[in-house]
Structure formats: structure tokens, C-alpha cells
Amino acid sequence: MTLQQLRVFQAVARRGSYSRAAEELRISQPGVSAHVKELERQIGVELLEQMGRKVYLTEGGRILLSHADVLLMAASEARSAMEEFRGMERGRVVVAASTTPGTFVLPPVLGRLKQRYPGVDLFLRIADTEQVVRWLLANESDFGVLGEPCAPPELVVRPLATDTLVLVVRPGHPFADREAVRGDDLAAESLILREPGSSTRAITESSLRSAGISYRVAMELGCTEAIKQAIRAGLGIGILSRLTVADELARGVLKEVTIEGVRIQRQFGLAYHRRKHLTAAARALMSLLGE
User: Fold this and answer.
1) What is the pLDDT of residues 59-73, one digit of tens each?
2) Is residue 34 part of a domain?
């Protein structure tokens, strides 16, 4: 039984799919299957069973997963302790972030850390909030920055910064020359939103529903840049973080419009596993983010 076998088994168990585990671990699906089969052969217990496209844990699999979580966490802590022992001349920090903080907040902070500690290797993984939480729970990231502070109890989440979301239209749109629009005005518009699982999508829909505003989702796109391009192409209007459209607003290629009586804000959160041993490099990066 090897740590790699346990790591692969853990990924399949968490994702409920060999293909998704392969994608997450960046190895081939046959390689994932081979690791699991060899692990089952070595311990003489069937760990997983497949029903349709979904993979489920057997009773033996559930028992092993609880021990695998402990062993893999301990192995990561041992590696981190050795990196910390060597000091900041060497080290490795893996940060996971949802799209907005990962694209517009973290890169300059990572640059400052790299200047101070050039021997530290930095890895930034960007995905939607749900995926970031999965990475943290599976101990595949040292810490994460979430666009939505709601998280499982296994994670510690500290408030980091406030982000404001705004209604954005293209020049020439009927809203473009208005300082504000009423909520009722949105009902007839084609709204372009991020995919389900994105905190931008979640906070937008929650805020509109709380304000009693009816809306129609005409398009779902998997990244903020695609939404900006779709708005500029006249395919609809969108609600995005002001951070993500600051450049376009300054150049006049997109217009911000106020929705009367509605202020959409969210709190970026700094999250890490309660049992995670944070290296000196990870703590230094978290300190820079706090600044």
C-alpha cells in the first residue's frame, strides 16, 4: 500500500468518478483504475463499486477512506515540517482560489512573495468555489481564497476583503445612458451569468431574489472574460465583480449601471483545513494577503 495509491483512491471516492479523479490528479483514467485495482489486490478487499456512471464506496472502502484521510494529512504535514525546517530558502505553497480573487487579487501578492523568497515554489489553482473547497478538503491545497465564505466545518475561514458586484452593459444599450435602472427593468433583459457552482452566480441570484427582482438567464458561461466579450457583442447584460471590469470601465468599452435599491456585495474568505500544518512560506503568503 503506497501513499500514491491512497491518494488516487481518495480522489475517486471524493469525486465518485474515475474520469473526474483522473482529471483532478492529471493522470490517465487507466492509470487511476490500475492504482485502485492494485490497492484492492494488496489488501484483499473490494473498495469501490460502480452503478451506472457513479462510483460508490463499499463498506470496506468507507473504513479505508477514513484512515487514508488521516495518513495523507500526516504525510503532508511531515513534508511541510521538513520544508519549514529548511527555512524560507526553499518551500512550496499551493493556493487555490475562485476565479475573481485568483485572477485579480492573488497574482500581484504571489509576485511580492516570490521577490522576497525566490526559493519558494508557488502554485496557483483557479476554479469555481465548489472545486476550491474540494481541493482544501482533500488536502490538495495549502489554503484557498473563496468568493463565498460559506464552507464545511472542516475548514477555517477568515474574512479577507469585500467585493462589489455591478450591472454591466455595452455602450449603445438602452441602459448605457441611464444612471440607474429599476429592478423591473431587468425582467425583459437577457442576463448572462457564470455557471452554477460559481460564487458570483450564487450571490447574484441570491441578491436579486432577496430584492424581489425577476430575471431571465439567457446564457451561462464558464469564465468572466467570456461574459465580458458576450456583453460587448450585444448578447445580453451581466452582473460582475467591479474588480473584473475595472479596465473595461476605464476605457469606456463597458458601462456600469446602478440597480435602484440593490447593492450586491460578498466577502472574500481565506480558508484552510483545521488540521492543516501551514508552512512558514504559506503563513508568509497569508500575511501578505492580510496586508
Assistant:
1) 998 999 999 899 998
2) yes
